[in-house]
Write a structure and sequence with these properties.
The complex is a heterodimer of chains A (324) and B (234).
Chain A lengths: L4 H11 L7 H32 L6 H23 L7 H31 L6 H23 L4 E2 L9 E4 L2 E4 H23 L1 H11 L1 H6 L4 H27 L1 E2 L3 H16 L4 H21 L4 H15 L10
Antiparallel strand pairs in A: 1-4, 2-3
Helix pairs in contact in A: 1-11, 2-6, 2-7, 2-9, 2-10, 2-11, 3-4, 3-5, 3-9, 3-10, 4-9, 6-7, 10-11, 10-12, 11-12
Chain B lengths: L4 E10 L2 E11 L4 E6 L5 H8 L7 E6 L2 E2 L5 H5 L3 E4 L11 H8 L5 H13 L1 H5 L10 H13 L5 E5 L7 H14 L4 E5 L3 H7 L2 E6 L2 E7 H6 L1 H8 L2
Parallel strand pairs in B: 3-8, 3-9, 6-7, 7-8
Antiparallel strand pairs in B: 1-2, 1-4, 4-5, 9-10
Helix pairs in contact in B: 3-6, 4-6
Classes of the chains: A mainly alpha (324), B alpha/beta (234).
Chain lengths: 324, 234
């Protein structure tokens, strides 16, 4: 019964704005909110696993988001320059560009994540203050490297033709890219769920989130899992960055830091270490932000904070947290 | 026969505190060695130091004649040392079955066979195999924690206060299971329950203020009223 509370809360939140918003606009906002939620989920899922398993507060996660966006941007520019796949009318060419850009974002953010874990995070395991300081320092360095490599100004992200514009379904405007983002988010969640609940590696990671010392004394080399989770979390942040860049059609060096605040709110709402919690939290934030931004634009961020405070008052460990 | 485990003048700090101040002990193969002492004497810290969770700043820990104090916890476990910590350390959100599977270092026919034997020792666990471990009673959690340590090839089993917080009837069942386990592995048992310790133990060490202050056969300690009163308050 307790586990049914978050979905019911979500459903109530989903339907409540219908009282003040015309149904067609509500549907458009809902799709936008779900897309925003899924993109935040990509960032928050990695963050929650890294914190849950490794007890590491990784403030450099936002910089990996930016690096993923820029790496994907460069691949997209390159592919479009050679073969014109962004401007092509072919759905296959458009999808190919997106896949190559995602691959570029994954490779770069994953490699950076592994380097960060090995070089700067590993020496400060168990020391939260040092983790905050050193990962904030890494954020500054990584963002400056972006400015050096790509310049300080905003860049226009090429979006393939198929994913631009909107569909008109029964007089309801449905933007295309958000639908792609929602599909990607659902696929990532399904993949993570399968990995965590149906594989041996996932079983050990879930056990490690609860008590990593116990996992070690059972004979598992937890550092191998730490590195793998850090790499996977970083890759998700990179994909999130690329998709956010395509969603907003522009990228800038500090974009990761701006999204990180949402990701932290989502992780706290969902419960540290819970991927399902992150998904529910991200959808709550994405939807409430879009509804409130339409009704009372200035209160949009305030409402996400209010949801976090409310959840913490009712359930201090977050919606799906285990109270570690 | 050479000792299976040996601690020589081990000093361990936790933060700024010097907890172990020269612990020396020897564990004979196939015997049950009991560590006794009041709260705060350093028994749990000794177990955590053996497992590599805490690194000693001085002294040596040897297993089968080989120094292990510089090894990582997972490498120590892979030598065949099982650990059941105080408070059981079960994964409450995982099922009983998942708790047992996560403990296996590889899911082989041999490990599944060992799992069958562990479950035969604790039949209750079979009934609750698909229940979340967090919903088990205190005694069942303790049985799960011990069964988990038996699914890998174990030469030495370290068990920290298994009777803590359990009802007398459950303790009786636990004593039976631990006695049966003596057939499979050498056991180091930390225990405050003197009656249980004296029924299971072959050798004993008494700890006080981070040092081993008495060593000898369990039967001799059981007969020494003055020593028991002085260090154990019984």
């Amino acid at each position: 019964m307790k586990r049914a509370v978050p979905p019911l809360l979500g459903l109530a939140l989903l339907l409540l704005p219908l009282a003040a918003i015309e149904p067609r606009t509500w549907l458009t906002l809902t799709v936008a909110g779900l897309a925003m939620g899924m993109l935040i989920f990509l960032v928050a899922a990695g963050l929650t696993l890294i914190f849950g398993l490794m007890d590491v507060l990784n403030f450099a996660h936002g910089a990996l988001f930016s690096w993923g966006a820029y790496a994907g941007f460069s691949v997209a520019i390159l592919v479009n320059g050679y073969w014109g796949w962004a401007a092509s009318e072919s759905v296959l060419a458009n999808a190919g560009l997106l896949l190559l850009a995602v691959a570029g974002a994954v490779i770069v953010s994953c490699a950076l994540g592994i380097a960060l874990e090995r070089v700067i995070v590993r020496p400060v395991y168990g020391q939260h203050l040092f983790q905050i300081l050193i990962t904030l320092g890494a954020t500054i360095v990584l963002e400056e490297l972006i400015r050096i490599a790509w310049g300080p100004n905003d860049q226009v992200m090429p979006v393939p033709v198929t994913f631009r514009g909107s569909w008109d379904v029964a007089d309801v405007v449905i933007l295309r890219f958000p639908v792609i983002a929602i599909a990607l988010g659902v696929s990532v969640y399904a993949g993570m769920w399968w990995l965590l609940h149906r594989t041996r590696v996932g079983l050990i990671v879930r056990a490690g989130v609860e008590n990593n010392e116990m996992v070690q004394v059972m004979g598992h080399d937890i550092h191998r899992y730490f590195t793998a989770v850090f790499a996977a979390g970083s890759a998700l942040a990179g994909v999130g960055g690329l998709m956010w860049g395509m969603f907003s059609q522009s990228i800038r060096p500090a974009m990761g830091g701006e999204q990180l605040i949402f990701a932290f709110i989502v992780v706290i709402i969902g419960g540290l270490g819970s991927v399902t919690g992150s998904l529910v939290g991200a959808l709550l934030v994405g939807l409430s932000y879009n509804y409130v931004a339409f009704l009372v634009p200035k209160a949009a961020i305030g409402v996400t904070m209010a949801i976090m405070v409310l959840v913490l008052l009712v359930r201090p460990t977050g919606l799906y947290g285990t109270g570690k | 026969m050479p000792d299976l485990l040996e601690l020589e003048d081990v000093h361990t700090d936790i933060g700024q505190h010097h907890i172990l101040q020269g612990v020396s002990l020897r564990v004979r193969p196939d015997a049950v060695t009991v560590l006794l002492g009041r709260n705060g004497a350093g028994k749990t810290t000794t177990m955590r130091t053996i497992m590599g969770v805490l690194r000693p700043r001085r002294g040596a820990v040897r297993f089968d004649g080989r120094p292990i104090h510089a090894l990582a916890p997972h490498a120590i476990a892979r030598l065949g040392i099982g650990y059941v910590p105080e408070g059981q350390g079960i994964f409450a959100t995982l099922t009983v079955d998942e708790n047992l599977r996560v403990a296996m270092r590889a899911e082989t026919a041999e490990s599944r066979d060992r799992l069958r034997r562990a479950l035969a020792l604790f039949p209750d666990l079979e009934r609750f195999r698909h229940a979340r471990a967090g919903t088990l009673s205190g005694g069942q959690k303790q049985m799960l924690a011990i069964a988990r340590a038996l699914v890998n090839p174990t030469r030495l089993l370290l068990i920290d206060e298994p009777s803590k917080g359990l009802a007398p009837i459950v303790i009786e069942h636990l004593i039976g299971a631990l006695a049966a386990m003596k057939e499979h592995a050498t056991v180091v048992l930390v225990e405050q329950n003197f009656a249980m310790a004296s029924r299971l133990g072959d050798d004993c060490y008494v700890m006080d203020d981070g040092r081993t202050v008495h060593a000898g056969p369990m039967a001799a300690l059981a007969a020494d009223q003055a020593l028991k009163r002085r260090y154990l308050g019984v």
